[in-house]
Amino acid sequence: MKVLQFTIPVPHDKSVIAEKVSLPYHYPYLHRHKEIQLTWIQQGEGTLIAGNNMHDYSAGDLFLIGANLPHVFKSNPEYFAPNANKQIEALTIFFNPEGALAPLFNLPELKPSLIFMQQHQQGFKLPHSVVDKVSQIMIALQKASGPDQLIQFFHLLKGLTNIKSKLDPLSTYGNLPGITENEGIRIGNIYNYIMQHYSEPITLEDVAKVAYMTPESFCRYFKKHTGHTFISFLNEIRINEACKKLIAHKFESINTVAYKCGFKSITNFNRVFKCVIGNSPRGYLDSYNNNLISLNRAAS
């Protein structure tokens, strides 16, 4: 089956694309493209699904998405509510080292940048310590034109290549199979359903119906295209939401968070939380609060 990749509109007079979006919510379907993508979230909250992993995002976060890495920025459910009056804003830079920029990346001076991109094909979240510097270069690149835009692009490459922190990949599954246009929409609809109903009892049969498949076919299809079983994906969504509620401190007890995130048993919640996060809910919350205290002291 031919892979119909999401196509980034490339103006005839540009080799680096800067795109600023202000929309009610992010493009909601799983997709991939041949360009490397650098996205700075300026407004909005949600979950980034990249390959087989998911990551919270909020204003100020900056992500590099590798070429051909299936991904979707899923805005939180409240962004899709009628009369939501909410908006997302993001600035994204697209570039393809194997396209019009290939001769540039073949220069010896840019070999470190090319190697850096090849080593991080699964993408990464930029450390907060470099976000201000890199985002300012992105703004300058967006405003520039002609040779000045390429000069800013060189600054951007230098800023990325000089990152010394350990960069954890966004995805750990390796190469997922190609996503056709119809499959991207189908998987996006599955994600939408799970993320909108995670707090309710959801059965395999329920989700299979959304995909217009039998439960057996759905299990094979979902595992093949996401690297997850249905249950592992549902558990990660629920634990991801539980973490958000815990650190927001808008709950009466940890038990309340467990039940609001779709767990019927606190024992099962604790077990799944430990499996996904590597810590207990109480330990996770204590660690978060201690880190917050340390950061506040350092700022003082």
TrEMBL record:
Listed SMART domains: HTH_ARAC
One protein family per Pfam: Cupin_2
InterPro entries, A to Z: Cupin_2, Homeodomain-like_sf, HTH_AraC, HTH_AraC-typ_CS, RmlC-like_jellyroll, RmlC_Cupin_sf
Alphabetical keyword list: DNA-binding, Transcription, Transcription regulation
Domain (HTH araC/xylS-type) ranges: 188-287
UniProt KW Hydrolase keyword: no
Gene3D superfamilies assigned: Homeodomain-like (1.10.10.60), Jelly Rolls (2.60.120.10)
MF (Gene Ontology): DNA-binding transcription factor activity; sequence-specific DNA binding
PROSITE patterns per UniProt: HTH_ARAC_FAMILY_1, HTH_ARAC_FAMILY_2
Protein name: AraC-type DNA-binding protein
Species this protein is from: Mucilaginibacter gossypii
